[in-house]
Amino acid sequence: MTNNHNNHAQANKTTTHIDEHNHKIITEYNATNQKITTTRYNPNGTLRSINDHDPQTGQIIKSTEYWSDGSLWLIAHNNPQTGNRTKTIFYDEGRIEEIIKYDIQGNPTTYYPDGSLKEIEERDPITNNSIKEIKFNPDKTIKTITIFNPDETNSVAYYNPDGSLDSIEDYNPSTTNYLRTHFPSDLTSEEIKTTEQTYKDTRQKYQSLPSNK
């Protein structure tokens, strides 16, 4: 894999053109005429993005994107063979805001800047639709567990720090409009037991997941 510095050092040919949005695009090629870097500028001349390409596969292996004021927005890394996203780092005022890593199935795991878990999303391997979403508090306790059910309702269970159920909100799966809120007093003891067991099972499943430190 070739980093951006080496790409520029190996550049043998450069082309420049203006796209339909009036962005200037500079493309660099190596000695064998393989694309290695694409740099895009906004109409006002500020840097918009830099894409590094794998010379052998042509895939974008690294994307660096900037806000309109020139500050860093994100750095994304892709698999050089498939082009699939493997990691994205978001920045805010020069500091890391969050880090997202993708497993081989494309399921994203989001981390806080300190490397602790922030959010995990499980997706259907065939449709790529979301199945479950788990959000964590900064202290590593589970904040919410969302179950996506396109045939019924999407349910968001909110948990207290001790793992007990606080409430459940239902949403229309098609429109995402809010439908209703269930409090523990609205549920049977068996329903409460089920939701709290879901919490325990989820916590056990992910507590061994390594941090991003």
Labels describing this entry:
Lipocalin; 11% helix; 15 strands; 213 residues; mainly beta; 2 helices
Q: What CATH architecture label of the largest domain applies?
A: Beta Barrel
Unreliable sequence segments? 1-5
Helix percent band? 10-25%
State the helix count: 2
Q: Tell me, what is the CATH class of the largest domain?
A: Mainly Beta
The outline comes out as elongated
What would the average pLDDT be, to the nearest integer?
A: 90
Order of H and E elements: HEEEEEEEEEEEEEEEH
Structural class: mainly beta
Biggest β-sheet: strands ordered side by side in the sheet: 1-2-3-4-5-6-7-8-9-10-11-12-13-14-15
- The rounded distance between the terminal residues' Cα atoms is 23 Å
Domain module count: 2
Main sheet properties: 15 strands, antiparallel
Alpha-carbon Rg, integer: 22 Å
Q: How much β-strand is present in the residues?
A: over 45%
Characterise this structure.
The protein is mainly beta. It has two domains: 1-102, Lipocalin, CATH 2.40.128; 122-213. The protein contains two helices and 15 strands. Strands 1-2-3-4-5-6-7-8-9-10-11-12-13-14-15 form a 15-stranded antiparallel sheet.
